[in-house]
Write a structure and sequence with these properties.
By secondary structure, the chain is α+β, with helices and mostly antiparallel strands. It is built from eleven helices and 16 strands. Helix 4 packs parallel to helix 7. GO terms for molecular function: DNA binding; restriction endodeoxyribonuclease activity.
Length: about 450
Amino acid sequence: MRAGIVFASAFMAFSNISYLDSAYSASSLPANGQVDWTTTGGVLEEFPEISSEQSGMHFRISASPQHLLHVEVMDNAHHFSDGFWKVGSYSLSLLPSGKIGRFGTDIPAEETKAFIHNFTAAPSSSLILNDGSETQVSLAGSSVAVDTFTHYVDTHGIDLPPPFASSHASSIFTNGAASAFPPATSATSTYSAPVYQSSDAQQSTSSHSSGGGWLKFALFLVVAGWVGKKWMAYSRVKTAEKTCRDLIQIHADALRIRRKQLVYQNSYGVEKTEKWEKEIVEFTKTILLPALSTQGLIPEWNRINSKIIATVDLVSQQPVEKPEALPSNPDVYSPAMNPYDYEKYCTTLLRKVGWEATATAGSGDQGADVIATKDGIRLVLQCKLYNKSVGNEAVQQIAAARDHYHADFAAVVSNADYTLSARQLSKSSKVFLLHHDELQGFADRIGAINVIDA
């Protein structure tokens, strides 16, 4: 990827930046008056750009005929090395551009309309960094900034792809071309004496003819070179796409399992995908980009990243193709494991921190899937391997099991979230609601309470 902002010499210079400083109209401002994005003069005040300063980072969007839009983020505090920017339904990867704290990507011309639509329609966006953190980026004023930029491009006859297509470009070209034709000559002359050329004149004419042939040949070479360059660029993009798609298929089942592990519904029935989006970044960094780097195809990533990320998400939502290759192992968590192995998995977690734990195997358990003891403390668990939120019933069952087994503590353990009503009932019935990743820490804490009491 090119470092910084690349402008071609064929790109017309913007000669009047003063318009950009006063382009806002009251009717086009956001209703609350907030403007976080503006259109200003660009590098060395030669080109306009859309920019914003938020959360210690400087965002800059600029245009050029080659890649139309270039997005650049400058992290003033050097907090991250890469990540991606999610703007509505459009996601773009941010990769280092060669300078510390500077990251960016090019948006291909065919994807510009999709990016601009999301950029101006959404009230805010998310910057998801490589360290797992997520920063909200306001898009207030983005519509005004894009309108200002579009108006400038249109009124100055600059020929860019949609949505920045100039309505004046063709007329300017036509008017300029018309002036190159000589005025028409009179058709009323009746006779002109024949002109005899000397041998020198004939040789000169022959030389001109020969020169015209060389000019045509040179023009042919230029056109052939341009076509060849375009074909090579197209072939590299297609090779990069195939490399990424092949790797996605190789890791398809692993991606499907990870998505099941990381995507869940919260208490209000809303699907939470933040952890899965970070997993996509990790897959890109550790699998896709190294493969592209080996083939020298990293520059092509900027042209295909949105399409490839969408493919990863689509493939991950399909069923596991080879479940027989993924046996249920009670020592290793998987959303594809059977419920009894999940109970054994929770039992194993407790044993690793010093508890004597037994899975009841579902027969006559009176609502307790696991019974564990340590230093005179008895703990009963209800284990739920779900792909939806856990409801009231599990809370009611483990509360009854606590009384039946005369346990000191009762908890529901799950890979999923809990409904709002389950959370409310757990407070009144003194039942703990845990994710299995929290189980060992919880067991250590209640064990410490018993030591203090003793």
